[in-house]
Amino acid sequence: MTILSVVGARPNFMKVGPVHEALVARGARSVVVHTGQHYDERMSGVFFRDLGLPEPEHYLGVGGGSHAEQTARVMLAFESVLQEVAPQAVVVVGDVNSTLATALVAAKRHVPLAHVEAGLRSGDREMPEEQNRICVDHLADRLYVTEQSGLDNLAREGIDEARVAFVGNVMIDTLLKHRPAARQRPLAVDVGEAPYALVTMHRPRNVDRAEPLAEVVRIVEALAERLRVVLPLHPRTRQRLEANGLLARLKAASGVHLIAPQGYLDFLALMDRAAVVVTDSGGIQEETTALGVPCLTLRPSTERPSTVEIGTNTLLPLAEAEVARGVDAILAGEGKVGEVPPLWDGHAGARIADDLMMWCKG
Ligand code: UD1
């Protein structure tokens, strides 16, 4: 049996790893295709080494561009690989443009399509990820769900529950597997014994326009008055800061450590030891909940409500005063303690592989 899994951008690598391993352990041929949406060593290569993933068998090298350009390039390049590999099923993960593009090609060529991390909805159609999630879930033949809200959303959208399986969270499989190694590592930045906030911001809504971006800078400065700040800069954010003349200001800010995007293990070590994580990421909301680290997510909504309802996550607006208040409460010991949501137990990849192989055998 041949199963083709797609990776494209940074948040995909840690999701495909557990599925690939579980498929191989069950004797399937698992072919990994990398679209090349993310191509920098720091956004892609280091993850393969950190996670012990095999080199992808096919690399499509599509790179950046507008959403339409990127999606179209992936579709064109993927179609011929799909014909060549001729798998019994295609597995796509998450919500990035590569997920949508390859799902469309598989569906149109009538290759059975499975979506890992199905059913998440932020309700915010401005987010490209939300558009991608909706389309992919409606194309998929088999939908693997991480949390209760996913089941509720898919039922509300009329997707047949016979196609849906609640399997848990593959990203947490990866986190639990690598946490011991991350705990052995020195931090990638020297903050001494001081408590620090780990900050990541890259959502177009927060960094693409001048006014929100200036607020991001003010938030970082307000945090730095209270504790050290470690800020790994996504390429998009770096470009926007530079274009708006704000990069030099952040570089000069005292107590702010601007660093390059980190590999998986270094970033996990940084999250695990942070006093607070301030982010607009999707996956980091889940990883901090699994680690029990307080997380402030600067977005109007989340597609991962279990992290707020059960875990350590709090949604806040992109506003300096509110973030400062949130961090002060956490530093005063009033942060959320939280619990880990059901089935985020390290075995989601195994459940998916079992189900997928049964399903493919029909
Ligand atoms: C993508 C995903 C987002 C995810 C994020 C994680 C979509 C719609 N968005 O956003 O969900 O949270 O990845 O990082 O798929 N760039 C580099 N080097 C790279 C990759 C990108 O310099 O290795 C540059 C690109 O040229 C582009 C910018 O960063 O200018 C954005 O890259 P892109 O893939 O378009 O989207 P992300 O913002 O990374």
Distance between the termini: 12 Å
Structural class by SSE content: alpha/beta
Q: Helicity range of the residues?
A: 40-55%
CATH topology of the largest domain: Rossmann fold
- CATH architectural label of the largest domain: 3-Layer(aba) Sandwich
- Rg: 20 Å
Strand order of the largest sheet: 3-2-1-4-5-6-7
Per CATH, the class of the largest domain reads: Alpha Beta
Please provide the ordered H/E string of secondary-structure elements: EHEHEHEHEHEHEHEHHEHHEHEHEHEHH
Overall structural domain count: 2
- Give the low-pLDDT segments: none
Find the CATH superfamily of the largest domain. Glycogen Phosphorylase B
Question: Average pLDDT across residues?
Answer: 97
Report the sheet with the most strands, covering strand number, pairing sense and barrel closure. 7 strands, parallel
Q: Tally the helices: what do you get?
A: 16
- State the total count of DSSP E strands: 13
Strand content: 15-25%
* Bulk shape: globular
Bound molecules: uridine-diphosphate-N-acetylglucosamine
Protein name: UDP-N-acetylglucosamine 2-epimerase
GO molecular function: isomerase activity
Keywords: Isomerase
InterPro entries: UDP_GlcNAc_Epimerase_2_dom, WecB-like
